[in-house]
Amino acid sequence: MYLLNPPIWYLKSTINNLKVLHQATHMRDQQKLREQPPTSSDDQDVYSCWIDYFSDAINSNSTQTEE
Fold first, then answer.
1. Where would you tag: which of 2, 10, 26, 41 has the fewest CB atoms within 10 A of its CB?
2. How many domains does the chain have?
């Protein structure tokens, strides 16, 4: 996406869609494993880290363009 130089709302929309998909997958997995306590896998930690990183980048970029 970076090379395409899309408007900021494209990036925000993509990140928000990824968040929704991740939440839905996480909820589905929790329903399957109700009897077991929820555990955090390495993949989930990495995913959360990158989503937070890109969300912060988009939010800081949008505040800079508004100024």
1. 2
2. 1
